[in-house]
Amino acid sequence: MIRVQVPFVRLLAVGAPLLFATSLLAQDGGTGNTISDIFKYDNAGLIGYLIVVMSVVALALIIENFMTIKREKLAPPDLIGELEALFDGENFQEAVELCEQEKNYLTNCVGAGLSKLGHSFETMQVSLREMQTEESVRLFQKIGWLSLISAIAPMMGLFGTVTGMFVTFSTIAAAGGSVSPATLAGGIKMALITTIFGLTVAIPVGVAFYTLRNRVIKTSTEINAITEDLFERFRGK
């Protein structure tokens, strides 16, 4: 039951802000605030369009990371079985060739350990753990872009808010303090739209980042345990 509910909760956490923001933007209310109106350049401004571009990049990164950062991709089960069979038969040269042909988290770590074959167990272990650290860091760097986007998006929204209020007060100053509300609507609208855009991007991207971070920690820990177990046979030799 838990395995069914957790992905649903994560999907809800990522999708709810998007659905909420879309419902807000889609409301007409007789004022013409349709989605097409919201995305007009005069309303969203350059900052709003930059946030939209960031959202597209973030969506592509999320899809790519969810598809590639999983144990089946980083350490295929059939490859694990093949390496175990080669280690049991002490066919280490074939294991090295296999690691060179199949490049992934598992084979990179195993290949690093086998590169010190003939040295002491401690030397092999140091080489293995250095590669484990390198592979883990590479995964964290890969998802780090999502953390950057989730941090920048609300700041961009705040920047758009300040810009919109600056336009509003500039209009008031230019008119000598006597202006109609309709004249001020443009700057205020820009301020609100960029704020909505920024939060709409930041919230789901932040949820996706922490979900992927937990996946990286869990997956790397499991693969590291597998590689450590493979090389335990060299202890004491």
Report mean pLDDT, rounded to a whole number. 80
Helical residue percent? over 70%
Main sheet properties: none
Note the total helix count: 9
Which radius of gyration do the C-alpha atoms yield? 26 Å
Low-confidence stretches: 1-33
* SSE ordering: HHHHHHHHH
Structural class: mainly alpha
Net shape:
rod-shaped
Distance between the termini: 46 Å
Beta-strand content = under 5%
Model description:
The chain is an all-alpha fold. It has 2 domains: 2-73 and 144-234, no CATH class; 74-134, no CATH class. The protein has helices at 2-26, 35-38, 41-68, 71-74, 77-88, 92-101, 105-114, 121-174, 181-231. Helix 3 (41-68) runs parallel beside helix 9. The radius of gyration is 26 Å and the shape is rod-shaped. The two termini are 46 Å apart. The relative contact order is 0.15. The model is unreliable at 1-33 (pLDDT under 50).
What is the structure about, briefly put?
Helix content is about 85%, strand content about 0%. It is mainly α and about 240 residues long.
Secondary structure layout plus pairing:
Layout: H1 2-26, H2 35-38, H3 41-68, H4 71-74, H5 77-88, H6 92-101, H7 105-114, H8 121-174, H9 181-231
Give structural attributes:
237 residues; mainly alpha; 2 domains; 9 helices; disordered N terminus
